[in-house]
Amino acid sequence: MAEVTVVGAGPVGMLLAGELARRGVEVDVLERRPEPGGGSRAIGVHAPVLAALEESGVTERLLAGAVRVRRGEARSRGRLLGVVRFDRLSTRFPYVATLPQAATEAVLAEGAPQPLRGAHVTALLARPDGVHLRAGVLGRPIERTSGLVVVASGAGGRDLVYRPGAVAVREYRDRYLMTDAETGPRADDEVAVVHLDRAGVLESFPLPGGRRRFVTWDPPGGDTDPAERTVRMRTALSERGEAVEPAAVSAFGVRRVVAPGMRNGRVFVIGDAAHEVSPIGGQGMNLGLLDAATLAPLLAEWVRSGRSPDTELSRWEKRRVASARAAARLAAVNTALGRALPRTIDAARRTGVRAMLAPPAGRLFAHAYAMGLDADA
Ligand SMILES: Cc1cc2nc3c(=O)[nH]c(=O)nc-3n(C[C@H](O)[C@H](O)[C@H](O)COP(=O)(O)OP(=O)(O)OC[C@H]3O[C@@H](n4cnc5c(N)ncnc54)[C@H](O)[C@@H]3O)c2cc1C
Question: How many angstroms separate the alpha carbon of residue 285 from the centre of ligand 1?
Answer without folding.
Answer: 7
